[in-house]
Specification:
Helix content is about 25%, strand content about 30%. It is an alpha+beta fold. The protein is globular.
């Protein structure tokens, strides 16, 4: 399956600075998405995680041609679907990859999103940004933050959490300024994690709950 998302960047500024920062230019970007979806119902441990590949395209109407300026590798973990099917969340993550298996301890408990991380929300799934790389001139304009937020508002609308791995301490403050919180700090030789609680935004959209999610709220 292929699709596109359009992003207009101003560039992005933290909310606290938005009132005092003058926009000097805009970037017109498109995310060209590609994924594979099973037509059959998920079986055993397959079909409960959707991986997407996204090319970041500079689609500025003033340019003579479009240019690929980055790429992203993103997963949506369908936690509610896993619970409804009676599968083990840990087994599903282990079967997919060691990268997703590493998310179990910091983000899940009892087969569900950690309640302290999604307090007050109603969404069930998790959006994980495995990789997001941009050409140098775009990396300096916080385009990566805007891409993740756009993914949260579209493909991640049913997700309670968005998770971004970080390798450098210098990256933390930039993401924190846009509402992300540190789940696990960066340590030498280890990956750190940031998360954004998107469950309240999903609640405002009145997205229907999976059966397992409805049962947990009763």
């Amino acid at each position: 399956m292929r699709g596109t998302l359009q992003i207009v960047l101003a560039p992005v500024t933290p909310p606290a600075q938005a009132a005092t920062t003058r926009v000097r230019g805009r970037i017109m970007l498109t995310l060209e998405l590609q994924t594979t979806l099973l037509l059959d119902e998920p079986s055993h441990l397959d079909g409960f995680v959707t991986w997407l590949e996204a090319d970041v395209i500079d689609d500025d109407f003033t340019a003579d041609y479009m240019t690929k300026v980055g790429h992203a590798h993103v997963a949506v973990i369908h936690v509610g679907m896993i619970a409804d099917a009676g599968r083990s969340l840990r087994d599903v993550l282990d079967a997919d990859s060691g990268e997703l298996a590493a998310l179990h301890e910091p983000y899940f408990e009892d087969g569900w999103l950690r309640r302290d991380l999604v307090a007050g929300g109603r969404a069930s799934d998790l959006l994980y940004v495995s990789d997001l790389a941009l050409d140098g001139t775009y990396a300096d304009r916080q385009v990566d933050v805007a891409i993740v937020r756009r993914l949260c508002d579209t493909l991640g609308v049913g997700c309670g959490l968005a998770v971004v791995p970080v390798l450098a301490r210098d990256d933390l403050e930039r993401w924190i300024a846009h509402g992300f919180q540190v789940t696990r700090p960066v340590r030498q030789g280890e990956v750190g994690y940031l998360h954004l609680n998107t469950s309240l935004r999903a609640r405002q959209a009145h997205a229907p709950l999976p059966r397992a999610a409805a049962a947990r709220r009763e």
